[in-house]
Specification:
The complex is a heterodimer of chains A (about 300) and B (about 270). With about 300 residues, chain A is of the alpha/beta class. Chain A contains 9 helices and 10 strands. In chain B, about 35% of the residues are buried. Classes of the chains: A alpha/beta (about 300), B mainly alpha (about 270).
Amino acid sequence: MSTLPETRQAPMMPGEPALRRSGSRKGEIHIRNVVKIYGSEESGVRAVDDCSLDVPAGEITVVVGPSGCGKTTLLNAIAGFHSITSGTIDLDGEPLCGPGRLKADPGPDRIVVFQNGALFPWKTIIENVAFGPIVQGRLSRKQGYEKARAMLAEAGLRNLEDSYPGEISSGMRRRVEIVRALMNEPKILLLDEPYRALDSLTKSVMHEALLETFDRNQVTIFFITHDLEEAIFLGHRVAIMTTRPCRPKKILTVDIPHPRDYSVLTAKRFREYLDETIAAVHEEALKAFAAGERER
Amino acid sequence: MPSFRAAHIYALVASTKFWRGMFATLIFIAVWEIVSGIGLSRIPAPSAVALTFNDMMRDPSYWFSWYLSTKRVFAGFLVAMLVGIPLGLAMAVSRTFYGIVFPVFEVLRPIPPLAWVPAAIIFWPTQELSIDFVTFLGAFYAVVINVIDGAQTIDVRYFQAARSMGSSSWDIFRRIILPGTLPSVLVGATVGIGIAWAVVVAAEMISGGGSAGSMGGAAGGGLGFFIWNSYVGGSYTQIVVGMISIGIAGYISSALIRKAGELATPWLRDQ
């Protein structure tokens, strides 16, 4: 991470603009009245109900809520992995899904980083990272590898190129996966509890790395978690969701300027935000627990 | 990397596991020798078998039996791979194709390959082809079942990630499904070649052979026929030699496939 300042402008592709992204990036998502019912309209499970949420461009929006509350359903709808039952989702004013078209097409403008990671185990790190631009036909294999190497170096991940994902630590895998996502020049990154399985020390390293990446790329981030400290530390805005059906209960604007570092965690304001969030989430957690009891 | 190999062998010989295995084998042979020696069993003693083995090593017809059986196993096995892998992949990828083929496949699968021997002899023009066919069947089902299972259990996240990054269907097939299925193909191959050896021996016994002793003469022969012929001829030590030969042949075949598998799936090494 100490190597960042030098590498920032240095790696340039012939005929390509600098790797550093311009500040005017898009990636604004509007979610309006989205409903998702699993099963039939009458008797099915209402996972998301009348959910409206904005994800402003160039910001980190964190969605928190109890496990199984329907957060991931929302993410899958944006990514285009699952359909919605009704409502609309727009990306920069263009409808992703809406009436007559309830499932978005997955595309490189919206890249998901999964909870358990989805680096292809049979490809080396460099092959994984260069995958998107090569299959999209944007870059030749050689150009793709060059860019991947530069991006990995920029993220402080040198010398991993020829390893397989199974040979590096799970923390490293998450960071590589974010680099792979950025190679697609997405408008928005969709992160689905990417650090859930990591221990708290690794997590803190991941958070700082993610914020560095964010500051460098100014890419819009939609981040799902149920770790409240993580939510407040990372997010410009934290949307606390109600439990099934899922919709925003409270949206908290975290007024702590980016770039942030770990000293924020001990700040008085951070604690206040945390208390506020805990109160709201606890209420939902109790409801989720009670609902779970009823279902058994 | 000879130095690596030498170190490897040294580590093996120095390990407790190796000596435990050696010890168990020696005990087994000793007990066998004693049981035969005091007349508790009509199975020839290991010492007598060893003598016959020594004779056989110099007998070209013995090696010709090896050659015949190996040829049949690999012919059947290779065709099983060539047909089974595409068939399994097609069944895993296409619901329609699966719906059409799988019921037929599942009806045929429980029929033991050996039950096919008479039909195969009638159907195929030469006895050689009919044995190859039965061997093929033995390996075929194991390969197909494993390929289907392997392709269907590839984690959905990989497909989602690949599609997000703009992969075409062909990219997904080539870059996700093929490598994702490879470990299961190797499992199918390892199981398949084991069954192929089991089947070839029995098929050779049933179909018999013109003349086991003569080289390249009439059809038939092979290690299965070698055992059967030894039995008919009352040469009990040769029966055991034949049995041990098959054990060795099967072991070598599996080891070859394992080695090929390690080379083909470098990402699974050291895990």
